[in-house]
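W.,

You were right to be curious about this one. When I first looked at the sequence I had no strong expectations either way, so I just let the prediction run and decided to look at it fresh. Below is the sequence, 97 residues in total, followed by the output.
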Amino acid sequence: MTFSHPLDLAITHAVLARPFAWAGLIGSATKRARFEKRLREAGVSEAALARLACPIGIGGITGKDPAMIAISVAAQLAAFVSADQVAGAQSKIEQAG
């Protein structure tokens, strides 16, 4: 997001305080752990934290340059949208059944 962890935390908190389906945050597992601790202390729910993708991107792509991060994030978003479409189709089938 930014080059400032305090600003990233403030932005993340603002997003998690609202209804959302999915949010991604560039960072490491360590950054996620620190943010989770602080966000829990600020009253963010476990459900909201579960919808936070950090580190963002699919596993297995280790490149740190912007193009590799973009590819990894695009793949993760495609997987999210695809899963959402499948869930929506299954729900329609169940409702029609």
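Here's what jumped out at me. Residues 1-56 form one domain. And, maybe more interesting for your project: The longest helix spans residues 66-96.

Coffee later to discuss?

I.
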